[in-house]
Amino acid sequence: MTTRKITVKENILSANAETADNNRTCLDNRQVRMINLMSAPGSGKTELILRTIDQLRTKYRIAVIEGSIASSIDADKITQKNVPAVQINPSGGCHLDARMIQQAFGALDLERTDLILLENVGNLVCTADFDLGAHKDVVILSIPEGDDKPLKYPLVFVEADAIVINKMDVLPYFNFDLDAFAEVLGGLNPSARVFRVSAKTGEGMNDWFSWVEETLA
Ligand SMILES: Nc1nc2c(ncn2[C@@H]2O[C@H](COP(=O)(O)OP(=O)(O)O)[C@@H](O)[C@H]2O)c(=O)[nH]1
Ligand SMILES: [Mg+2]
Q1: Which ligand is nearest to the CA of 195?
Q2: Are 85 and 104 in contact (CB under 8 A)?
Q3: What's the predicted TM-score (pTM) here?
Q4: How many Å from the N-terminal Cα to the C-terminal Cα in the chain?
Q5: How far is the CA of 7 from the centre of ligand 2 (A)?
Q6: Average of pLDDT values for 169-191?
Q7: Nearest to 80 by CA among 50, 101, 108, 112
Q8: What does the alpha-carbon distance between residue 95 and residue 9 come to, in Å, rounded to a whole number?
Q9: Are the C-beta atoms of 199 and 47 separated by less than 8 Å?
Q10: Which residues, other chains included, contact 102 with Cβ-Cβ below 8 Å and sequence gap of 6+?
Q11: What is the pLDDT of residue 89?
Q12: Pocket test for ligand 1, best of 38, 43, 47 (most atoms within 8 A of CB)
């Protein structure tokens, strides 16, 4: 019983990996870069996307893929910025897969896009398993969530290219130990870039914007 379950999962993941590679090739052929933003609900994915649009929209053509489960609240915020946005509804599922992203590409004008910011479903577990074809995978962790999250959800942290510690403005009110976090992350993924930011106040955001621009270079 157990063995059979694992086999099914492997088949799903290998089919997904093939589609993800196709997605990356599709983007590469059109010189589009895609950044996949993953976090628990409420860590600040949408806020970070909105601030990144504000900062970089005069230099790059940005589009957004929104993976909200039920509502269009986040997609509506993006649309208000006059930026192309596609909402994927993974029918109550806990993650996006590469085929959904492939379908979303069909609703975007990739020839007129430089950067796709992809807001994944708010979930630190299932999202880690599925390559979507992004060029960079980013995990956002906010101060109120605590510094022990990499120990509880290691996979998503191990695979990330960058970690954004968001909501630095509320650090005085929480017991988030930045040194302990750095030590744990150093053991799991020493090469990940780490940004300490407040998407609300703008603290630390210039380093994040520079990294996004490096990704586009
Ligand atoms: N204090 C503070 N609040 C923030 C920050 N970033 C986001 N928020 C707030 O946190 C809540 C959740 O943010 P949101 O971007 O919707 O999170 P998402 O679910 O990951 O997309 C919203 O009320 C945001 O305004 C921040 O840096 N500092
Ligand atoms: Mg959101």
Answers
A1: 1
A2: no
A3: 0.94
A4: 48
A5: 33
A6: 97
A7: 50
A8: 14
A9: yes
A10: 19, 22, 23, 26, 133
A11: 82
A12: 47
